[in-house]
């Protein structure tokens, strides 16, 4: 019975994770089992592999993003820098997008909701503004594990470049990066508390 609960927790954690980091050092069978599940449900560039030696990485996985590190104080500091840089690259790719004024944009990457029990995506309806401000509406959709969906309402914003607005039901803010006549650039930013830690939903 306990094993079943552990597997449910693992599957739930994989489903909720935005990015998965797996350490392949010593070729732990459980890690490879879970990594197989991850590769079935996540985009490959949402997965970061770690290992203390390339020999621990199977040949067919060596084409994926892998960070080799040394288990020493200096090696772990370098690992932290490499992971931070890799996360920044992933966030720049997946959490930035642009839309043209007068159009609708579906952000279809799944974001974990504040209830930690469901995922969300959203529609952005971009209106017309000027080069200082932009107008848009956002409608968040909750997606449950059993496939059910629930619309969480539609909210309008009038926002200047550089400002951030919190998304309802999500621990994410939407930042306006640029406003041009033909497109507006947006970036999702995970919300942090005043001590620099992630807000716990």
Give the helices and strands, then pairings.
Layout: H1 2-16, E1 20-23, H2 29-41, E2 47-51, E3 66-68, H3 73-94, E4 96-99, E5 104-112, E6 119-126, E7 133-143, E8 149-160, E9 164-166, E10 172-179, E11 184-190
Parallel strand pairs: 1-2, 2-3
Antiparallel strand pairs: 4-11, 5-6, 6-7, 7-8, 9-10, 10-11
Helix pairs in contact: 1-2
In short, what is this structure?
The chain is of the alpha+beta class and 201 residues long. The protein has three helices and eleven strands, in the order H-E-H-E-E-H-E-E-E-E-E-E-E-E.
Report on this model:
The chain has 201 residues and is of the alpha+beta class. It folds into two domains: 2-93, 3-Layer(aba) Sandwich (Rossmann fold); 98-190, no CATH class. The chain has three helices and eleven strands. The protein has helices at residues 2-16, 29-41, 73-94, and strands at 20-23, 47-51, 66-68, 96-99, 104-112, 119-126, 133-143, 149-160, 164-166, 172-179, 184-190. The strands form three sheets. It has a four-stranded antiparallel β-sheet with strand order 4-11-10-9. Helix 1 (2-16) crosses helix 2. The longest helix is centred in the middle third of the chain and has 22 residues, at 73-94. The radius of gyration is 20 Å and the shape is globular.
Largest beta sheet: strand ordering = 4-11-10-9
Structural class: alpha+beta
Radius of gyration: 20 Å
Taking pLDDT < 50 over at least 5 consecutive residues as the criterion, the unreliable ranges are 193-201
Order of helices and strands: HEHEEHEEEEEEEE
What overall form do the CA principal axes indicate?
A: globular
Oligomer: single chain
What is the CA–CA distance across the termini?
28 Å
Give me the number of helical elements.
3
Strand content: 35-45%
Report on the biggest sheet: 4 strands, antiparallel
How much helix, percentage-wise, in residues? 10-25%
Mean pLDDT: 84
**Tally of discrete structural domains:** 2
Number of strands: 11
